[in-house]
Design goal:
The chain is 49% helix and 21% strand. By secondary structure, it is of the alpha+beta class. Strands 1-2-4-3 form a four-stranded antiparallel beta sheet, with no helix packed on it. The radius of gyration is 20 Å and the shape is elongated. The N and C termini lie far apart (56 Å).
């Protein structure tokens, strides 16, 4: 049973303030929570994530990672057998697990994947830009890296990573990218 977080607020309690990143994470969780579909047909449960993948760019660019993370995270409660990219057959291991709890857990674990920083390759795929544009816009400050990741490919290579919130904002506002392209022309 989900925990009720709607606690009464008293005057002596400090106000909770969320950073923009925390607010974005909460909004992604709500979006995913609303999109997870769990259908029960005796004795089969069918988990459909199609609306999640369509509505959340963080899942759209990382489908394999999302499926793997969900399967691993739920392995103590159920067995997932993927029928397609977005649909799984669920076999319960723990008989007391309710459908609402399973749906809530699936949404929470998928939201974890969506909040991870975006690598250059995923950024290019998510925004439909070229590698040259990404390099140019990062260099002149229009795309702001959120940090870096070090990869070992024969030698150590450092690559910038970008905030998922920034990527979602740019994906939702393609006019910004169009204007950047016009400015560069």
């Amino acid at each position: 049973m989900p925990i009720d977080l709607d606690l009464p607020v008293s005057a002596d309690m400090p106000a909770v303030t969320w950073s923009p990143e925390e607010e974005a994470r909460a909004s992604r969780l709500e979006l995913i929570r609303a999109a997870v579909e769990l259908h029960e047909r005796d004795p089969i449960l069918r988990l459909s994530l199609e609306r999640c993948f369509e509505g959340c760019i963080g899942l759209k660019v990382r489908p394999t990672q999302a499926r793997r993370h969900l399967k691993s995270a739920l392995r103590d409660r159920c067995v997932l057998r993927w029928q397609s990219e977005t649909v799984a057959i669920v076999q319960m291991i723990e008989p007391g697990t309710g459908l609402d709890l399973l749906k809530e857990l699936a949404a929470a674990y998928l939201a974890e994947v969506t909040g991870e920083p975006v690598t250059p390759r995923l950024l290019v795929a998510a925004l439909g830009i070229t590698s040259r544009e990404r390099l140019r816009w990062t260099k002149d400050g229009r795309l702001k890296p959120d940090g870096s990741v070090t990869i070992k490919r024969g030698q150590l290579i450092s690559a910038p990573v970008y905030s998922m919130s920034d990527v979602e904002f740019l994906a939702d506002n393609p006019a910004i990218i169009a204007r950047w392209r016009m400015d560069d022309a």
